[in-house]
Amino acid sequence: MLPDFYKTLPILSYLFLWCVSCYSQNSKVLPNEKKGIYNTTIVVNLKKNADRKYFLSLGLRNPLAFSPLYLPPPPSTLDTSANLKTVIKTSIEKPTYLTLGHYIFHIEPGDSLNIDFEVLLNTKTAHKDTITINHGNVFFIWKGGSSLLFHKYLNSIANSLKDLKTTDQVAELTSRESLRSMADSCTALIYKEHPILKSDSSTFETVKKYSIHDLLARLAYRLSFLYANSRDESIKSAIETSERNMLEYASLQEGHYDDPVTLGSYGSVYYFFKEMGLDAQAILERFNSSNDTLKQYVQLSLFNDGMLSEEQELRLIDKLTYPPYKEYALQLDQDPNRGIIKSGYINNEIRGAQLFDVNDKELAFDELFKTTAQPYLLFDFSGSWCKPCLEEMSVYAKTRHLDNSKKVRPIWLFFENDKTKWLNIIERYNLKKENCFLVVGESGNILRKQFTLLFDWKGEFPHYFLFAKEGEIIDKRARPLSMFEENDVSNLPPREKNKNSGPPIPPPIKTP
């Protein structure tokens, strides 16, 4: 179940505390900016002054849908001089996706957004807030823990994929008629969620475009799971055909190649072909029928992932004609550590993320690896708010076949705002308490960000990661705990003979 980020995208959004440090508590023009150039106003009404610190960071979603997923804000000023009010003035040249804290919304130049924000609950193990739009022709694509109606609908579609048993069912789900119908439903739900959103042709087409590409991104990503976990070659062949069909359908839509939602749909299809183990040339061939701008995006993705030869890399920048792609490629080319970050191990930020056990004891993520006797750890990223997560737990609860495994330790990592619900779920499904942990607050943001960067997570829930106890990733898309068997690790190389085994060593730093 994807709270958005097909994220995603995936992907998911993060609190960029460094943005907060750029601002003072009084009206201020940010460095290197001029007064009088701001065309868009955002007014945040607060219930109490204590809420202000939870809603200060303004950001921009990366138009290329690459890492970093979120960029510093456009030219902006922030005024906090009025009691219980924050006024942000910014300048944007075209419709875009801005972020406020962990909220993401679509806004157009010149719009005036007025919202109410209130923190309802904030403790060491729980946080809950709410937001209401008073004025503004905007729609949210991510509202933190608040599940949007079209998200719930898309999650129900993603959850139904596991029930696909025949090639005809796969083909029917991803037919153009079916895709069009589901996208129309998403559009209707966005309007239902945002009753003051305009219904003029321009706004409607924007919402419809978002619905189509978000649907395609989620389906492409979820089908990759079904492909990886299926042992039926006919089903796998049907899924690959469906991915091609979705690529063709996406290409028929109006091209907005400076829009992260548009590129996210293509990125998910690219990701599917990459996960099949195809080389760069084979992936490029899958996009032969696409237009030149999209082909360039695939080449840029291959460059970003370190899949091009040195000769191909040297020629690439000259071949890129779309200015945003060329600019990004030049930045990548100047990065001496490009590709090094994905070392295959959890890093120090993940190791230091704070968790809570059922006794409210705080511990670091790293302690799970240090204290586990089994050679492998199988993580279930879940939450009490995630219906597919609970369905998987109910299936696992019937056998609990990994509870006493000597090879694999099952671990449920709950991303929560409510500890009471978390404990109730553990009791309801009789999960082994010593294998259940709670993630709240900034630690959740750290894990979402780092697992996205290091292990290509799109923010999907539930999601399963298989690690060796040394901290090495074994499977970024493992089978669900209810389906996972000890034999699934029997064919892996012995840890002492695995070339990546042993204590995790930080990757080398290249010098220019």
Protein model, in words:
With 512 residues, the chain is an alpha+beta fold. It is built from 16 helices and 19 strands. The longest helix is centred in the middle third of the chain and has 29 residues, at 201-229. Mean pLDDT is 83; it is low at 1-34 and 495-512.
Distance between the termini: 42 Å
User: Which value, in Å, is the CA radius of gyration?
Assistant: 23 Å
* Broad shape: globular
Tally of DSSP β-strands = 19
Q: Could you list the spans in which at least 5 consecutive residues all have pLDDT below 50?
A: 1-34, 495-512
Class based on secondary structure composition and strand pairing: alpha+beta
Q: Please identify the oligomeric state.
A: single chain
Share of helical residues: 25-40%
The number of helices is 16
Spatial order of the strands forming the largest sheet: 2-6-7-3-10-11
Q: What's the pLDDT, averaged over the residues?
A: 83
Q: Strand percentage, roughly?
A: 15-25%
Instruction: Profile the largest sheet.
Output: 6 strands, mixed
